[in-house]
Write a structure and sequence with these properties.
Helices cover 58% and strands 7% of the residues. The chain is of the alpha+beta class and 240 residues long.
Length: 240
């Protein structure tokens, strides 16, 4: 291992393997934006806990991706904690973590996740996850939902899910329009842009059909497409 480089732990996809997780995208986009040297170590879902269990407190409730291993041997788990650390260690260009847009976005996304979880929980194992992660996915998500994933999708997916999303997504659209884009702060990129771009990239990876549905539900697809174009210099590196 090159001890001078950060290691970003990420979840692999079916071939061609590249980043898909919205939370991993936040950290990957951040590293690319700041020009920080790193390499990716890919972990299937059942391999996450065994890889990290010795490096975090015994009372850690969940082991998650993204996690980074710093050159000094310290592990940091959770995309926001990673952002806080890297902003302090590499302050330029700034992430504007105090932006009110980030605060608003972080308040919106949990509701959006709940609105559409019947869609993405159903499609992820069918379109992106490798065979090694499928048993883990179905077992843990069925436990979260208190019913099989496919059954939950049949009850809460489709038009019902997208109707819920259409009540939330236009709020993000209006935020992006306030300063005339392409970023939330206008011409200045911030962590809020990485958070939202990661969300859009996740749906883009999930499939053209659902990505088109998501953009339609925003009320103005162009402002979101403009953001993706603006972050392209930092999203192109997705496979290593």
């Amino acid at each position: 291992m090159d001890s001078s480089r950060i290691i970003l732990f990420d979840l692999p996809s079916r071939p061609p393997n590249k980043c898909w997780s919205l939370n991993s995208w936040k950290s990957r986009l951040l590293l690319n934006l700041k020009g920080i040297d790193y390499k990716t170590e890919w972990l299937e879902y059942p391999d996450i806990k065994p890889r990290f269990v010795e490096h975090f407190p015994k009372d850690t409730e969940a082991y998650t991706i993204p996690t980074v291993l710093l050159p000094d041997g310290k592990y940091i788990m959770d995309s926001r904690k990673i952002a806080n650390h890297l902003e302090a260690a590499h302050p330029s260009p700034p992430l504007h973590l105090d932006s009110p847009y980030l605060t608003k976005l972080e308040a919106i996304i949990p509701g959006l996740r709940d609105a559409l979880k019947a869609v993405f929980m159903y499609l992820l194992p069918k379109r992106l996850l490798n065979e090694a992660s499928l048993p883990y996915w179905y077992e843990t998500r069925s436990k979260q939902l208190s019913m099989p994933v496919d059954e939950y999708h049949a009850e809460e997916g489709g038009d019902k899910a997208w109707k819920r999303a259409r009540e939330i997504l236009p709020k993000v659209t209006e935020m992006l329009k306030e300063n005339e884009g392409p970023f939330f702060l206008g011409k200045t990129a911030s962590y809020a842009d990485l958070v939202w771009a990661g969300y859009l990239l996740f749906w883009q990876r999930l499939g053209d059909d659902v990505f088109a549905e998501l953009l339609k539900a925003t009320g103005d697809a162009k402002v979101h497409e403009d953001l993706l174009d603006a972050v392209k210099p930092w999203s192109e590196r997705a496979d290593h």
